């Protein structure tokens, strides 16, 4: 008897493509509390039980090398460059866009753009972004207490946001324990923890002594509009429109007999700055736009998109003392050209010892070398290398001097009949903790070999 069997379909199954990494959901979408991309990267690494450094090296870097390497100086280590410039990942930069592309490809997820400030990049200047992390310690503390995920908000990366309005407290800008400023991404960074001393950054409460709370309410209410409508702003706002709208504001003020000089005084600016905004010479920074809108009492949304001719501005409000004159964005007081000249002068003066790049950056009002390097890569390289050479030379000289001291003390010990232990040498050289210095240990070993001393 013939038996008939079921016919098997032998065409191979189509297995859908798998993402390389798990997509971690961003927190606070479509609200002012939206998470930043750097925070999501830190959390994604944690979700995969690897450090952020490993995540960057093994996952992000292969993409970023393809995208950015050509524009980066060859000898610069891309990994460390990414860590040092991690503040720019939340911005409209080549690095930021590369990271977004990498995250798209790795997770098959969409929409990492809203975790950055790309949509409002027309309003951002170099000073608008903090180069190190800031956070509300009470937000961290509360999330931990309630068992919610701990994350960093995108608005915390803006220098005009200084307080948490949920907890009425100032944002922290350095570790509560070791006072270190923290990078957005680092080898072992973790949201809620210091990447230097690894301690918890949450705190139960921080007393507030701010009189600027109204100002911060104004800032964050307007940021709510800006961050939640990034696509619309990106498509509808350009520098011409900004200049036109500002020009119309000044016209309306003139109708109410308020001069530019009066407005400039109230805002704490020089009158020329207001003329520059009108001419559209350098654009207007987000902080200044917020301050202008605060002083004339018109929200940023209306200021940028409403028909100004119908608005009546009858009076203007005094700028809060802490932000008068855009204090937050005028740390760097000189123009780019003047800064360039200053650096050229330092290079041609060729002082000895050569100054540290960090000190020069501070003198010019920068918080980090990286921001200065962004504008003057060539000059910074020359200054940095001179100092590096000097340090290397100094280190060689110090080693020679340390060697002769160690040698001398070992000879003295032997003359006196003592064994030249590390402790004894430390005492005689008057330098505690020398045993931790690998150079000292090496030199001691060398002298031991020279005199045929058996280590005990
Ligand atoms: Zn908070
Ligand atoms: Zn710390």
TrEMBL record:
Pfam families: TniQ
SUPFAM superfamilies: lambda repressor-like DNA-binding domains (SSF47413)
TniQ domain boundaries: 31-171
InterPro entries to which the protein is assigned, alphabetical: Lambda_DNA-bd_dom_sf, TniQ
GO molecular function annotations of the record: DNA binding
Domain of life: Bacteria
Entry protein name: TniQ protein
Organism, scientific name: Paenibacillus taihuensis
Taxon lineage: Bacteria, Bacillati, Bacillota, Bacilli, Bacillales
